[in-house]
Every structure is written in structure tokens, then in C-alpha cells.
Amino acid sequence: MNFLKTNFAGLNLENPIMTASGCFGFGLEYKDYFDPNELGAVLIKGLTPEQRDGNYGIRIAETPAGMLNSVGLENPGIDYFEKETAPLLEKELKVPVIANINGKILEEYIEIAERAEAIDVIKGIELNISCPNVKDGGMAFGANPDMAAKVTREVRKVTKKPLIVKLSPNVTDIAGIARLVEAEGADALSLINTLLGMSIDINKKKPLLGNIFGGLSGPAVKPVALRMVYQVSNAVSIPLLGMGGISTTEDALEFFMAGASAISVGTGFFQNPLAAVQIKKGLIDYCAENKLSNINEIVAYAHTDDGAAYRKRIFSK
Ligand code: SIN
Questions:
Q1: DSSP character for 221?
Q2: Does 23 participate in catalysis according to the annotation?
Q3: What is the phi/psi pair of residue 133, to 5°?
Q4: What is the greatest pairwise CA distance in the chain?
Q5: What's the pTM?
Q6: Count of helix runs (H) and strand runs (E) in the chain
Q7: Which tens digit of pLDDT belongs to each residue from 162-216?
Q8: Which of 24, 45, 53, 73 to mutate to test the pocket of ligand 1 (most atoms within 8 A of CB)?
Q9: What backbone phi and psi angles, to 5 degrees, belong to 94?
């Protein structure tokens, strides 16, 4: 019995466990801990058209139940990725690679999407309209309903690959933005990206992070992420990749029951590099113990109708 096999946004996956972009490098860095082919798919660090150095100064801060980051989309750029990284991934990964793409302006989003479309090893695109750490692009798109719709529409025109739009939690109506993005052709949504926060260095009496603000992730954001997955799954008819503080099987189960049909481990890797493989085993055990034939049976089970309506909307397409 394959309890975890699934199709997410058109991608056939051995299991619904992925990595959260930015927390798993470019797919091979954790090889000393476990075989990344154990995952359902690998979501790699955000790419931009140009190489970027990221933000100045301190970029990571620990918080009582998570961390703040203000990396600022440091990455080697799509040319380097295509020439140096893609061939390695082609050789080493049997599971789908999903590229997280970013731009400062609409034209850059289109450019990077066109480039990702042409790279074979990239099997899906996560359109990141939610990075809180850059002045141009990122959250500026994700927090504005018209811009979120527009960038999705334009990127959809240039890619046939599964398009997953990554939403920002730093909005008042995430379900409204989700509906607009769905209407423009997104195949799936990932949520949530980090919550905007800050930390103060009390000795210097100044913000700790060089960029002043950063994105909060880890266990602290899980209740917010769950609430948003629940709200969005009640509002759309496309599958959700749930993330935000997942580090155990129990966390993952909560996300499935809220409405996610796949999950990503992010900050959890930094504390426990084996978190994703342990979750995979835990989900298999859960299915066996609860006599489920597939984990999909509990997607959205926390909804008032036990998730029947949402599961019908996403699985009967
Ligand atoms: C970063 O590189 O600043 C993080 C990316 C993101 O939050 O989307």
C-alpha cells in the first residue's frame, strides 16, 4: 500500500513532503544527512535573473520559538544555476525540482519564468510574491491584490509547468488574494511565507538585523499558518502546499487536516536535519494505524464538513 503517493499540481510525487525554499540550499547540501530522493519534491532557494549578494549586516536572529531572517534573496543567479547546478541536480535527483523564482519588477518575474521554463530539471515553478526582505518585488507584489493577480497572469502566459504561487501572510485578507491568483491560472498555492518582525540589540539600542526587519519562521508561526491554510482551502479549488513551523509528524498532520495536500519543512531542518524523513515515516505509521489508504483522506478534515467539499474540488479534477 502506498499511503503517501500523490499528485500535487500535476506533479506525480512519491510522497507529499517537500522542502521550503531557502532552507534546503540548492537540493544537495543535506546529502550527508539523508538522501534527498526520500522527499516528494525539492524546492530550491529563490532564484533571480542576476546574481545577488543579499542584505547587508546581520541577517539571522534567533527568537524564543523560531528565527528571523533577512537574507535578501542571495543567490548565484539563473545563468550560474543553469550552467553549474542544473546538471548536478539532473544527475543526483530523481524527484521533481521546483524552482522558487523572484524579480524586482514584473519584467524580471517574466524573464526568470521564461528561463525556468527552458531548464529541463525544473519540473515546477514556485512564484515568490512574498519575500519580506527586499525593497522591490517580493511582498510588494504579494500584499497588493492587483499586483499579485497581474504577476500571476503574466507568468502563467510564459510557463506550462505547474505554477505554485507563494503567498504572504502579511496581509489582512489572504483568502481574497488566493482567489485572485487562482483565477489567473495558478495550479496551486504555497503558504505561508514568513511574518514580518524585528529584533533589537539592547546594547547598541538599535535594530539587530542589518535590514531592520526580517521574516519570522519556525514553531512561533504555526498557528497563523494553520489558520491561513484553513481559510484559503475554504476559499479556493486548487491544492495547497502548507508550511510554517512544521518539524514533527503531528505538525504535518495538523496542516493536512487544515487543508494542505502537501507540506514543506523549512526552519525545522536547522534544528533537525532528519525532520522530513522522520515525518515521512510518521505519516506512513499514522495511515496504517488509522486504516487510511492514503494521507489524502484527511486533507481538510478539520473543516466543518470533514473536508468533503474541498477534497472533491481538488481531487476530482
Ligand atoms: C530571503 O532570501 O530574504 C528569504 C526569501 C523569502 O522570504 O521569500
A1: G
A2: no
A3: -105, 10
A4: 58
A5: 0.98
A6: 11, 16
A7: 999 999 999 999 999 999 999 999 999 999 999 999 999 999 999 999 999 999 9
A8: 73
A9: -95, -20
Cα 126 to Cα 44, 102, 175, 204: the distances in Å are 9, 9, 18, 38
Q: Answer yes or no: are the C-beta atoms of 49 and 77 closer than 8 Å.
A: yes
Residue 169 identity: P
Question: Distance, CA 138 to ligand 1 centroid (Å)?
Answer: 8
Cell of 289: 494505524
Q: Which atom of ligand 1 is nearest to the CA of 72?
A: 3
Catalytic position from the list 42, 95, 129, 131: 131
- Ligand 1 neighbours by CB, cut-off 6 Å: 22, 46, 69, 71-73, 128, 130-133, 193-194, 215
54 C-beta neighbours (distance < 10 Å), count = 15
Q: What distances in angstroms separate CA 275 from CA 57, 97, 169, 226, 266, one per listed residue?
A: 30, 19, 24, 19, 10
* Residue whose C-alpha cell is 535590514: 211
Phi, psi of 78 (to 5 degrees): -70, -30
User: How many angstroms separate the alpha carbon of residue 133 from the centre of ligand 1?
Assistant: 6
Per the CB < 8 A criterion, the answer to whether 125 and 44 are in contact is no
